[in-house]
C-alpha cells in the first residue's frame, strides 16, 4: 500500500503531451500520460491505478475456510474440555479441604470461563470490519479527491481504502486488518481487534488460574513419595547433586504411576496450561507493543519493507485510544485522516 502510494508520485498527471491514453477506474475520466506508467494516480479523484495487476483467481478459498472452521471447532472443544475437566478434577479436592474455598473458586471459575468463551465468540464470529461503501466509476459522482489514495481490489472488484487490506482467507477486504488468525477462523480488524485483545487477556488469566489450581489440587492428592537412599548422601559435590536429583525424579515417577484418573487429568491440565500461557503471553505482548507503536501487524511488516518511512509516534495515548470510546469509523476516511495529519506536522 505505502509503496504503491509513494511510487505513484513519480507518475502524477501533470502535462498532456503524448498519447498514453488510460481510463481512471475511480472517476472514469480518460487520462493522457506523458509516458507509459505502470502505477499512476489520478489528478482528479486521487485514485491509484496499477496496470501490472493480473486478474487474480481466488483458488483454495474453500480449503482455507475449511481449515479455519476445523481450528475453531478444535479450539472451542479444548476450551470446554479445560473448563469441564478442571471442574471435575479440582472441585472435589477443594470442597474436601474447605467449603468456603470451593465457593470462592466456583465464582472465579464462572467469571473466567464466561469471559474467555464470550470474548472468543465475539472475536471469532464478529465481522472483522467492512470498508465503507463509496461511490466510484463516473466523473460527476466522484468529486475532487474523493478517492484519495484508494486502490482497486481485483478480488472484490471494489475500491479499497488506504487502511484496508484484502484477506485471501476471508475473501473480502478488511478495515485496519492486523492479521488473519486461523484459530479464531477470522481476520483481526477494526471491528474485532479489541475483542481479540480481550480474549488474549482472558485466556492468559484463565491459564494462569488453571495452572495454579491444578498444581495445588495435584499436590493434595499426590501419592506418598518414597526416597530409597537419599538419606545416605552426605556432603556436596556435582556427582552427589546429580545422584540426589535422580533419586527425587525416580521417587516422583514411581509415585506418579499410582495416580488416579483425576491426578492424570490434573497433570495434563498443568502442563498444557503452562505451555499455552507462555505462547499466549508472547502473542499478547507483541499485540500490545504494536498498539503502543500505533500500528497493526501488517502495517509493521509494510513499514519494514519500505524502509520505515511511514513512522507513527510511540505513545501510551495509542493504547488509551485503542481501548477508549472515540474509535469511530471516521478515522478510516482518508480525507479526514490526511487533513488531521497535515495540521499535526
Ligand atoms: Zn480518477
Ligand atoms: Zn478485497
Ligand atoms: Zn481473514
Automatic annotation (TrEMBL):
Membrane-spanning parts: 70-91, 103-125, 196-219, 265-285
Enzyme class: transferase
Identification of the protein by name: S-acyltransferase
Compartment(s) where it occurs, according to its Swiss-Prot or TrEMBL record: Endomembrane system
Domain-level remarks: The DHHC domain is required for palmitoyltransferase activity.
Residue ranges of coiled coil: none
Classification via PANTHER family: PALMITOYLTRANSFERASE ZDHHC16
Keywords: Acyltransferase, Membrane, Transferase, Transmembrane, Transmembrane helix
Predominant location category: membrane
Catalytic activity, EC: 2.3.1.225
Family to which this protein belongs: Belongs to the DHHC palmitoyltransferase family.
Cellular component GO terms, alphabetical: endomembrane system
